[in-house]
Design the sequence.
């Protein structure tokens, strides 16, 4: 075992002797982790605004109430042209919106969606008749968008008030002592019932008290934003850069063979098992160092990695071991350094997005999730997400770890059987 460690330590000294390795291990992972974490919600500065075009063909008090409900239910919505400030709606000199123009803006991704309130909307609501709001957005395969959910919630508020009004008027008509002097008196009573129902709905008499653990300080929103963005980017970028680092073994092993370094090692009083074990230990250690660097960034940013540090460490160890085994298995099929460079980049830049390192697999179609789980990256990312966001335990992620162990065993069997020292 000492010989294995000596070979690994010697290779690590050679590895870190190159100044570029520090850039690859620390600087580039730091930059990309910060960029992707901030881009996916880690700024803590509140939700990004979503541009939505609204065309009100009714211009009634109820249609204005509907627009105000949209703002209340989802403050991240930028309702155009009503909330246009400094051309934040990108309307240019012409602030008027038509259905044709708004539809084209949706197709061009200038705006997220179009909400059209029809003429007679307010009168229909007050009379208890059907009232239909038109919603236009590009089709997605990930279910209702936040904007669509907000529209449905706002319509639900108005619909609830409408139902309360219809029921109230029905009860009033059956209550004999209550008589209306004329139609105007009846309309006034109907309006008062609707207004009272709307007021009660806006007061949110039934509420939910929502709290997050470890966010009792004044910077609660900063912690929430950091958790959302960096909870994805830290394990994602860590997994990707572990692949970049460990796949360097492809190039190094081929160069050592071409320079006869590996052959000279075989002539020394060490077994071939010691040599292969030392090489594997060296690249495994380099991968764990890379993981440690990225996760230290997360600790400094106060990302909550859950309360199962041993489970988190176990996933890191198994994934790094799996990638190391894959690198040694693939190296047995390559002949030149150029092939090694190309294949290492191809593997890392293919497996990372497919496996969920760049974005959560929840947002991709089902067939892409299936393809992603043909790689060890997806199983590791699933385990990380379970531990970070779902309060998972070691028992929860045992299936993921078993699959990673299976990948590792297959890759090592291929590597050991095909590895040549000549």
Sequence:
């Amino acid at each position: 075992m000492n010989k294995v460690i000596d070979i690994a330590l010697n290779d690590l000294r050679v590895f870190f002797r190159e100044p570029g390795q520090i850039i690859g291990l620390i600087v580039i992972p730091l930059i990309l982790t910060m960029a992707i974490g901030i881009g996916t919600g880690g700024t803590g500065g509140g939700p990004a605004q979503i541009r939505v075009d609204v065309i009100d063909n009714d211009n009634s008090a109820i249609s204005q109430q509907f627009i105000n409900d949209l703002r209340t239910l989802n403050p991240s919505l930028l309702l155009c042209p009503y909330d246009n400030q400094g051309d934040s709606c990108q309307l240019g000199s012409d602030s008027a919106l038509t259905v044709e123009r708004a539809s084209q803006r949706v197709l061009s991704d200038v705006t997220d969606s179009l909400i059209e309130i029809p003429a007679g909307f307010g009168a229909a609501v007050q009379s208890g008749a059907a009232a239909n709001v038109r919603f236009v957005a590009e089709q997605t395969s990930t279910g209702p968008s936040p904007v669509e959910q907000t529209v449905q919630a706002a319509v639900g508020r108005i619909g609830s008030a409408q139902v309360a009004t219809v029921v109230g008027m029905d009860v009033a008509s059956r209550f004999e002592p209550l008589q209306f002097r004329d139609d105007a008196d009846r309309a006034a009573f109907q309006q008062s019932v609707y207004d009272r129902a709307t007021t009660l709905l806006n007061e949110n008499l039934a509420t939910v008290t929502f709290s997050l653990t470890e966010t009792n300080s004044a910077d609660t929103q900063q912690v929430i934003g950091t958790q959302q963005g960096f909870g994805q980017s830290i394990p994602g970028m860590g997994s990707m850069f572990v692949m970049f680092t460990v796949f360097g073994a492809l190039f190094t092993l081929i160069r050592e063979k071409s320079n006869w370094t590996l052959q000279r090692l075989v002539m020394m009083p060490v077994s071939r098992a010691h040599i292969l074990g030392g090489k594997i230990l060296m690249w495994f250690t380099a991968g764990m160092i890379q993981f440690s660097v990225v996760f230290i960034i997360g600790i400094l940013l106060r990302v909550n990695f859950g309360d199962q540090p041993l489970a988190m460490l176990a996933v890191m160890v198994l994934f790094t071991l799996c990638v190391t085994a894959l690198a040694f298995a693939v190296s047995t099929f390559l002949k030149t350094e150029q092939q090694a460079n190309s294949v290492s980049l191809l593997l890392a830049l293919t497996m990372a997005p497919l496996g969920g390192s760049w974005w959560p697999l929840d947002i991709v179609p089902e067939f892409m999730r299936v393809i992603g789980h043909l790689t060890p990256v997806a199983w590791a990312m699933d385990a990380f997400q379970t531990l970070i966001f779902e309060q998972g335990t070691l028992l929860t992620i045992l299936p993921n770890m078993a699959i990673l162990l299976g990948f590792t065993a297959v890759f090592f069997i291929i590597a050991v059987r095909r590895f040549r020292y000549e």
